[in-house]
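#struct-pred
JK: can someone run the complex with nicotinamide-adenine-dinucleotide? inputs below
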Amino acid sequence: MNQTVLITGASRGIGRASAVAFARNGYNVAVNYCKSKEKAAALADELNSYGVMTAAYQADVSDKTEVEEMFRKAEQELGKISALVNNAGIAEQILFSDITEEKWDRMFAVNVKGAYNCTQAVLPSMIHEKYGRIINVSSMWGISGASCEVHYSASKAALIGFTKALAKEVGLSGITVNCVAPGVIGTDMNAAISGEILEELKENTPLNRIGTSEDVAEAILFLASDKASFITGQTLSVDGGFIL
Ligand code: NAD
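RT: done, structure tokens with the ligand placed:
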């Protein structure tokens, strides 16, 4: 029987590439989206061509009620969820002194509470099955900190702490919890960064290129696979060597 993965924020970027990678490898895929209904539905159609079951589910990950409803529907339609990828995230470049309380709270509501909501929704069934894979998408800025991204960096660092702590708590239930920490990846999230700054970031990357969504998706797929069955609580950097 196919395993089922739920990927948050899967209508584009790293989430989308992960959905394709999982479907190609025989997983049923629950595609979560917040607003991009058409893109998510088109992706689910595309994934069906891999002979797996897929469907798109709307939920703002920061909203516990919407998240619970999404998991209920996805489990009913696609089967028990054995892997969760907490990928949905927002970013913002702004001076620390300009981060309003509202901006701070929204950053944590999506990037951290979103992972909390989704993990809480799936964990009882993973514990019951004595099997599960949880992969959180952090960032290299959660490790090193980025100037003008204090709330983003802090939220991504929080995910690393979340990962380590939960890994210790649920290991006995056969559940692994890991993080990926992408570097500079060519997605919509970086669309506002000027060509000049992107070039500079590329030059500061030992592998001398901007990463692709597929680079990150392959690392996520690995952490979900049996090949990673003795790996938990770890943060796997996918950053071309940016942070060493
Ligand atoms: P992206 O902006 O293309 O994707 C983010 C996705 O999250 C989108 O599909 C968006 O709709 C979704 N999302 C946002 N708020 C949501 C909410 N409240 N509920 C549900 N979905 C929501 O960017 P991406 O680069 O693909 O980002 C994916 C993840 O990778 C994010 O967590 C991001 O922080 C992380 N990341 C990205 C980079 C990079 O350079 N692109 C680097 C490090 C980490």
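RT: quick notes.
The first strand starts at residue 4 and ends at 7.
The beta strands are 4-7, 28-33, 54-58, 81-86, 132-137, 175-182, 235-238.
JK: thanks, will look after standup
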